[in-house]
């Protein structure tokens, strides 16, 4: 079997490794036009923390994606490869002065090793009038390390990577038996999918190796330590395609994060990044048979639209996509 994966972000690469486990004898290729630092995945803080509105096609499937994902990342975390793969444990607090519901997360409260209400003392850890809070223990996957690690693992196991822009699925007609579409935000154009919308985000990466905990607070404020930097965010601009760094966002992020953790005032700035989260409700993991005029039918498994939670949920949706590949290959899903 020849399988093509369109996309080399966290979704494409995680799927590629999952496919190699399931089909060790298949010819598996990644086709993409952007890699590593040029992907949205690179921008992500990479914390395992889906938003409460993250959705698959049903509640049951959504919960399975989240649980499968945590199990997958945690398995790598327990191996000697963990730090090379950019995966480590991370604990943190989420505070709110508005509502307790902001500090709760039914998608992960039963999945993470610890998710509990913050004590009165803990509500005073950070400056601010915090009335509600939760403490949780989770994982972080830093894509600056994970993407090259996963690429190397894929190549070592016989996978191939091609640098190519695919303007329509017809461009790769006949190259593969099945194509998995992991093109993130670009799936909007490729699939003419009006449900897929960008949610613009901007983050500052600062040097603060002394910070060991993550902090979340009202107004989209988050501080997430990784291996090489601390990610400070953020903002969510719905349907904004603006890829320019906004000095206003920079100032607002600095002000909010430094108010929450004052020690960050002296942390040197390493990088400012903007990314477009590929938001779709529901996240699309499904099979489509596409008729390419005058040529024939292409079998596509779509896997895109993870919004701000693609690092979190990549393994769960990848496992689902691999199951769809199996269904197509065994004839269970028919034309
Ligand atoms: C500021 C910010 C912070 C975030 N923080 C987190 C977080 O803490 N935790 C979390 O879970 N998620 C987070 N996210 C979300 C996460 O980054 C995305 O959900 C995830 O990166 C999507 O991955 P992807 O592989 O679908 O897309 P991408 O990383 O964009 O990869 C898409 C791939 O498809 C290829 N491609 C696209 N179109 C074509 C084409 N026509 N031809 C050939 N190749 C093509 C590209 O070249 C690229 O390789 C954050 C996002 C942002 C912007």
TrEMBL record:
Binding site for FAD: 33-34, 166, 183, 307-312
Gene Ontology cellular-component annotations: cytoplasm
Cofactor(s) this protein requires: FAD
InterPro entries: DAO, FAD-dep_OxRdtase
Entry keyword Heme: no
Domain FAD dependent oxidoreductase: from-to ranges: 3-323
Pfam families: DAO
A GO molecular-function descriptor: FAD binding
Binding site for D-dopa: 222, 277, 308
UniProt keyword list: FAD, Flavoprotein, Oxidoreductase
Biological processes, Gene Ontology terms: D-amino acid catabolic process
Family the entry assigns: Belongs to the DAMOX/DASOX family.
Xref: PANTHER family: D-AMINO ACID OXIDASE (PTHR11530), RE49860P (PTHR11530:SF17)
Protein name as annotated: FAD dependent oxidoreductase domain-containing protein
Lineage of the organism: Eukaryota, Metazoa, Ecdysozoa, Arthropoda, Hexapoda
